[in-house]
Amino acid sequence: MKILVVHNRYIHRGGEDVCVDREVKALRDAGLDVQTHFVDSRPGTRALAQGLLAPWGSGAVAQAEKALRDVQPDVLHAHNLFPLLSPRLFSVARKLNIKTVLTLHNYRPMCLNGLFLTPAHQICERCAGQSYLPGIVRGCYRENRLQSLFMAGHLTMAKQRGWYRSVDRFIAPSRFLKEKFISYGLDDSRITVQSHFLPDRQAEAPQHPAPYILYLGRLSEEKGIRWLLKLFKETSINGQLKIAGEGPLKETVVESQDKRIAYVGQLSGVEKQKTIAQAAAVMLPSDCYENFPLTVLEANNCGVPVVAPALGGFPE
Question: Are 12 and 246 in contact (CB under 8 A)?
Fold first, then answer.
């Protein structure tokens, strides 16, 4: 079987990018012929222009459609498609008799930013199954009304032209995410729950954890980073807070360092596993509906407890 994996990578590498890489490796290790077509998001006017042209099949989308025709896979497996790619790829694949799979890492096409979260950090489902006007008014996509308007136009075109109806199988990382899509009209029989995974298992948990709380993940507003910094600065919680990761709030974290708060950068490999394994606990104070955070798996794998809100897929 030949599979073409398509993915629009994020400006700041996060869990979704990691999951895509791990899945590609796992499929190849299983003996499948897996080819990839990845595009990288970049800030700037050129990227914005490509995003505007995406639903019309120009720019990065044209290259992806060419890859479909050149590779002629049995299956097109898509992950993130925004902002440079487009669900119009599913329509093209159907015309070429290629089966299609979409992994639902977030809540698009029901929400402009895919998080069900307003710029004011309030859980919101106003646009789901209805008009995107509330999201445009609030500037929910990148906190920008004009870019929100463009994203709304793209998603509206996808609905009107039935591009998502050309998807043969949806994959949801959590039951929570699956139920949300079902509640807004997606057929239960078209969604399979497939959780994320880790390539290795920790042999044994450390016997003497260090006196620090660890945050590991994307440094962005929806992850509750500002709340976490405030918590440690304004309360008498024992121990130290270590923050690991990359993202748009990196400078805020760096500037907040003191005797109790330390930014340790982007971790990987043995260093990452050791930092998790020695933590007293991992804290993930997300404001949004998380689906299946890899950090929870990684902490569980090391026998380290996780403190998180009862939102989204966290309880699972």
Answer: yes
Number of H helices, E strands in the chain: 11, 11
Q: Is 267 exposed, middle or buried (0-12, 13-18, 19+ CB in 10 A)?
A: middle
Cβ–Cβ < 8 Å for 191, 141: no
Q: Are 38 and 23 in contact (CB under 8 A)?
A: no
- Helix residue ranges, H only, 185-304: 225-234, 250-255, 269-277, 294-301
HSE (CB half, 13 Å, CA atoms) of 158? 25
Quote the pTM value: 0.90
Q: Are 283 and 216 in contact (CB under 8 A)?
A: no
- Residues in CB range of 96: below 8 A, 6 or more apart: 68, 69, 72
Q: Is 208 exposed, middle or buried (0-12, 13-18, 19+ CB in 10 A)?
A: exposed
> CA 310, CA 226: separation in Å to the nearest integer?
19
Spatial CA neighbour of 217 closest among 280, 111, 297 = 297
The pLDDT profile of the chain, 316 residues, written as one tens digit per residue, is 999 999 999 887 888 999 999 999 999 999 999 999 999 987 766 666 777 778 888 888 999 999 999 999 999 999 999 999 999 999 999 999 999 999 999 999 999 999 999 999 999 999 998 899 999 999 999 999 999 999 999 999 999 999 999 999 999 999 999 999 999 999 999 999 999 998 876 655 566 677 899 999 999 999 999 999 999 988 877 789 999 999 999 999 999 999 899 999 999 888 998 999 999 999 999 999 999 999 999 999 888 999 999 999 999 9
Instruction: For tokens 């890899």, name the residue.
Output: 294
